[in-house]
Amino acid sequence: MTNQTTTAPGATAPTDERPYSPGLEGVVAAESSIGLVDGKNGRLLYRGYPIGQLVERGSYAAVAELLWTGEWNPGAQLHPSPISDGVVTALRQLPRTASPMDALRTAVSVWGAEQNLPWIPDVEQARALTSFSPSALAAFGRLRQGLDPVAPDLSLDLAGGFLQQLTGADPDPAAARALDAYFIVGAEHGLNASTFTARVITGTRSDLASAICGAIGALKGPLHGGAPAEVANQLHEIGSPERAEQWVRDAIGRGERIMGFGHRVYRAYDPRAAALRHVAEGMAHMAEWLSLAVQVEDVVLRVLEELKPGRIIKTNVEYYAAAVLQGVGLPPEVFPATFALARHAGWTAHCIEQAAANKLIRPDMRYIGPKDRDLPA
Ligand code: ACO
What we know:
Elements (H helix, E strand, L loop, with lengths): L34 E4 L4 E4 L2 E2 H7 L2 H10 L15 H9 L6 H16 L7 H21 L14 H10 L5 H14 L6 H11 L4 H13 L1 H4 L1 H12 L2 H13 L17 H11 L5 H21 L9 H11 L7 H22 L21
Antiparallel strand pairs: 1-2, 2-3
């Protein structure tokens, strides 16, 4: 929080002394019982349950129901839903070069127009949207390769159904389970930029689809959802553990960030990274890649500690997300949109919570421009 202010050219000295926090850092803007991000101690809890236990013993369907309702039902199920002709037509209109995030946002928008969702957002709407989006993203994944969409196998869960609709083949159960674990890890993370966006839109009494379109837009920004593809490129460039130290020193020397490290909230090892590393260790075909990743991680942590003394920069979720997403066979350009699929459960849970005790979100602003001028004659 600061009382200091910048002064725009031509502005008079500011008289507004209210505290201002750039990026709203440290500002408490909501009360929530959905998820706790305990950055100091490296803990992430969904409705009180630690992420490690949820990944080990839960499914994305059970976790989504937990986030929506607060109840733990390990037998909960979510299956992919078919997409309408209208959605397919809209996706066909997009250039094949469109980003999968743009396609997902478009599909959710069309879905929302078709559903004409009533206020107030509820669990049924959340379930419907969360089950729709994997099918829509998979359809675009095929259309951009010149292939037709395939209908979902309604007996599969969302992760398996996404892979099946993307490839047109029965998913490998181990890959589906790994992707389900990734979905759990990505489901919820407090009042991050996209979740805040979803709550702001819901706060106006707009509909759930509009809120999720906005959230997808916020997540599209590389500072929020873009790192795992870059982690993959980074490891590809480093190539071998012996080259890691020089590569990292050179990158930091050029003022660059090492992808997959550092976090605004965590000042300890990101618990999601630990959970996903465990999942990646179970993927035999990723063993060589993972061995390089683990050795590079050690080097990066050591060099960052030396070159950024006093900063606590640890491994974040994206580092091992890259291994899991590659391991299940997804191309890097689909990574951010796959993260968006996972985050549907958390976004929609926050919309329901926001609506239940709704207050329009409308922060104030300190005006720093010129005052009381006359237009030039
Ligand atoms: N590599 C090198 N230096 C870093 C890194 C990094 N990954 N992260 C932080 N630093 C350094 C900065 O250079 C800065 O150093 P300086 O004070 O000497 O200039 C210092 O640490 C603080 O940096 P800030 O940007 O103020 O820290 P913040 O906590 O806001 O940054 C962020 C968080 C944006 C995630 C940052 O760590 C980063 O850019 N990481 C790389 C990208 C990445 O992995 N993003 C995924 C995050 S996880 C997620 O969004 C789901």
